[in-house]
## 1
Amino acid sequence: MKKIGLASDHAGYPLKEQVKEWLKALGYEFVDFGTHSTESCNYPEFAHALAEAIEKGEFETGIAICGTGNGINMTLNHHDAIRSALCWMPEIAALARQHNDANVMVMPGRFISPESAKECVETFLATPFEGGRHQARIDAIPVKK
Ligand code: RB5
């Protein structure tokens, strides 16, 4: 069974609580790296915690949420091992897996309906990477040092 890492800031907290219910219903285990309330906080703290756990191999997959999705997505993508995709409709969630082999899905908690968010979660977790021509593109993403 896949274990999912979760992270949000205060703006993403309410949707993250819903995501937990959907994950339970789908039979997934999860670990929540915070935040744990709607009290104002800074999203990088929680994004880095999730990214570092994925880098250590503790999880293959993460779901993260802030208000727009942008701040937490930018932070996650500073980590070499992370391919984090901002998703707000299931078609984009599917393509994030098929074409980008995304290992984290980010959603904009303040700008997505619960129905769309649920579909994004289900789709992201169920869709495999297509490989083929997309592999070379993914291999070329990291900045050469
Ligand atoms: C918090 O107000 C908001 O700025 C944050 O959740 C996010 O949208 C930042 O990108």
## 2
Amino acid sequence: MHSLTVELGERSYPIFIGNNILSDINLSEYIVGRQVLIVSNETIAPLYMAKLDMLLTDFCVDHIILPDGEQYKNLEQVNTIFDQLLTCKHNRTTTLIALGGGVVGDMTGFAAACYQRGVNFIQIPTTILAQVDSSVGGKTGVNHPLGKNMIGAFYQPNLVIADIEYFQSLPQRQVAAGIAEIIKYGFIYDADFFVWLEQNISALMAKDAQALSYAVYRSCQIKAEVVAKDEKEMGIRAWLNFGHTFGHAIETHQGYGSWLHGEAVATGMMMAVDLSCRLGWIEPALLQRAKDLLEAAQLPICAPEDMTVDDFLTLMSVDKKVLDGSIRLVLLKELGQATVTADFDRALLHETLSLGKQLAQL
Ligand code: NAD
Ligand code: GLY
């Protein structure tokens, strides 16, 4: 088992990473009172809830099983978590445990941030995407019909357990979607990791345990470093949104759950690389490498055919990075180094947005 720390002073917390590690962790060290609410969903609970329950026999444990899907990541579902907490009379010392992917984790964290103005919570992420990204760093929240992740709070967990054992039951489409966020770290932060990903993409797609453990570890290490530098996204943390301004627009336009988050991010990263290339900041060869790696991960690289430039611009204008009415984008200065900027030629952005299928024909 490996461990990392997200260094946030008094709110620092560990991330444990490994294969089949859940029962090796002393959960009681991270649970403050006697009450626990496990939040999961109808797909994950039948697979993994019983094992977690067995490790919590010293506590008074309640459960809530949410419906499965991005379309249920909303305030209504968070309210059902509050209903359960109040019905079961949970007090301020309760601990919420998120057992699931990013949807369960984001909603549980938001409920923990709000319930009685903030209670303890633990992340047990079960998807690749949730282990390498959403469970670490304290961004919690829900979608609004007019914008992705628009309602939420920064609220850190006090423990993250990234057990790659969970990936055994993960469908291949979800594996690919998680790998999109791993590739993101190579683009924005670590050129050597990008090369490692180019060399190991087949092993990752085949769920090779050693390759996945390293990819989860290196991704969490980068994420922890960035969050420690800039918890509230005043600067470098925005790099983690590489591809997301385009991607969130796709998710919102297509209807939450139609494109997976990682799929939309993959296409968004391709568009961000394309624009960086049009601006002359990176070599065209990197555009080809981006396409090859994303395609090897069976990820989409072209925007939906029914999305116009205006659709993109309208949806991108409600992005959280918008400042004084200007769209700001995360683009690449070089492989392994990103920048957040509103200083780009709008005509070139229009060219990228109108590319559609052409990106596939590089
Ligand atoms: P998800 O939570 O919807 O999980 C994907 C699917 O896999 C679901 O159907 C789920 O039930 C199923 N599943 C989960 N674990 C499984 C397992 N071990 N075996 C079988 N099936 C399993 O999606 P996700 O990709 O984990 O997360 C996406 C969400 O995360 C989006 O809402 C996105 O906005 C959010 N996100 C948040 C952050 C953050 O910093 N908070 C970062 C990135 C993404
Ligand atoms: N996933 C982006 C962030 O955590 O900042």
